[in-house]
């Protein structure tokens, strides 16, 4: 079945540091890939997505590229801010349009000033 | 366009009581998903519904849990005879038919005392 393996946290970085959160997946066919972010006490917000190989999703300075050859969708940001502190979830959705999302376990990110 | 609306946001129940969680999908969305997030864990799929139909309930516990999405009104997740282990955040999400992206509500936090 589908699965997502995500870099374990917690991750603590200083402000303006470079961020990478690794995500790899197993799926039949070619799924769509997503990063969601959850701020404390809130629900999940879609951060970015990619629907086919070599697509790059980007939003708020975050980027992730759909790499079919390595089945990866690593999240990156060049310079993190304190306000980026949150839990980040990698997820996939198999093609078919209406399938459920399968999530990784989440990575808690804390940025210190 | 209002997002996915969940209520109540916080619910406290004594062991043995019933919990009912409601979810109104985004306007125009006919697909509803329920996920559970246990403390410090990722999101686990519970059930996927369309209007008046359960499409996939592979993540639902076999007993005490049920879900519906009637022709009119919100989707309901019902937990009978709650136990302390049911304490969690329950997230509802919705999507359009054939739409790639799933949008989440802000969650309902259930505490069983």
What does this structure look like?
The complex is a heterodimer of chains A (113) and B (113). Chain A is built from no helices and 12 strands. Chain A has strands at 3-6, 11-14, 19-21, 23-26, 32-38, 44-50, 56-59, 62-65, 75-77, 86-93, 101-103, 107-112. In chain A, strands 2, 5, 6, 10, 11 and 12 form a 6-stranded mixed β-sheet that branches. In chain A, strands 3-9-8-7 form a 4-stranded antiparallel β-sheet, with no helix packed on it. The mean pLDDT of chain A is 92. With 113 residues, chain B is mainly β. In chain B, 0% of the residues lie in helices and 50% in strands. Chain B has no helices and 11 strands. Chain B has strands spanning 5-7, 10-13, 19-24, 31-37, 43-50, 53-56, 65-68, 75-79, 88-95, 103-104, 108-112. In chain B, the strands form 2 sheets. In chain B, strands 2, 4, 5, 6, 9, 10 and 11 form a 7-stranded mixed β-sheet that branches. In chain B, strands 1-3-8-7 form a 4-stranded antiparallel β-sheet, with no helix packed on it. In chain B, strand 9 (88-95) and strand 10 form a beta hairpin. Chain B is globular, with a radius of gyration of 13 Å. Chain B starts with a strand and ends with a strand. The model of chain B has no long low-confidence stretch (mean pLDDT 93). At the A-B interface, strand 5, strand 6 and strand 11 of A face strand 4, strand 5, strand 9 and strand 10 of B.
């Amino acid at each position: 079945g589908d699965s997502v393996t995500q870099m374990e946290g917690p991750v603590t970085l200083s402000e303006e540091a470079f961020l990478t959160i690794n995500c790899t997946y197993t799926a039949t066919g070619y799924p769509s890939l997503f990063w969601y972010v959850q701020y404390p006490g809130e629900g999940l917000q879609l951060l970015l997505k990619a629907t086919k190989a070599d697509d790059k999703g980007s939003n708020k300075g975050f980027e992730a590229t759909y790499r079919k050859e390595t089945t990866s969708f690593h999240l990156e940001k060049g310079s993190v801010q304190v306000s980026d502190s949150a839990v980040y979830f990698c997820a996939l959705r198999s093609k078919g349009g209406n399938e459920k999302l399968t999530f990784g376990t989440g990575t808690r990110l804390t940025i210190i000033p | 366009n209002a997002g996915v609306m969940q209520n109540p946001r916080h619910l406290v129940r004594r062991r043995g009581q019933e919990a009912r969680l409601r979810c109104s999908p985004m306007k125009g969305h006919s697909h509803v998903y329920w996920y559970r997030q246990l403390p410090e864990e990722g999101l686990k799929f519970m059930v996927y519904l369309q209007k008046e139909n359960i499409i996939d309930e592979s993540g639902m516990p076999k007993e005490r849990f049920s879900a519906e999405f009637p022709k009119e009104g919100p989707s309901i997740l019902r937990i009978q005879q709650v136990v302390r282990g049911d304490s969690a955040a329950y997230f509802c999400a919705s999507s359009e038919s054939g739409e790639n992206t799933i949008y989440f509500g802000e969650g309902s936090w259930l505490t069983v005392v």
